[in-house]
Every structure is written in structure tokens, then in C-alpha cells.
Write the C-alpha cells for this entry.
Amino acid sequence: MATKTIALDSRVYDRLARHRRQSESFSKADLWIAAWALEHRALLATRNRRLFERVEGRRIIDG
């Protein structure tokens, strides 16, 4: 299976900063995941649905 590198551009950084202020209970890694998925309008697959359901505008499927 090939590995794909995901670019983190300034739009993702901006979204990360907005969400960091809103949610102190997210880990830094989870914030990066949420910010990237939102910015790229990606479907987020996770087994931790309760955590990511708090992110406004997210699209989630059970992973």
C-alpha cells in the first residue's frame, strides 16, 4: 500500500488556530486532523466519533 503525504498549507493553519481557541479538550494531533479535513472538505473516518462530532461543519463516517 502506498503512503500519501498530506500538505499542511496556510489555510489549514488558519483553521487550526480558530478551532484551538474553541476546544481545549482536543489533542494537537486531533486538531490537525479536523482542520485538514474541514479545509479540504474531506470525509473524516474515525472510531472516536464523539470527539469529532463537536467540530462544526465536519463530515464523519465510522472508521
In short: The chain is about 45% helix and 10% strand.
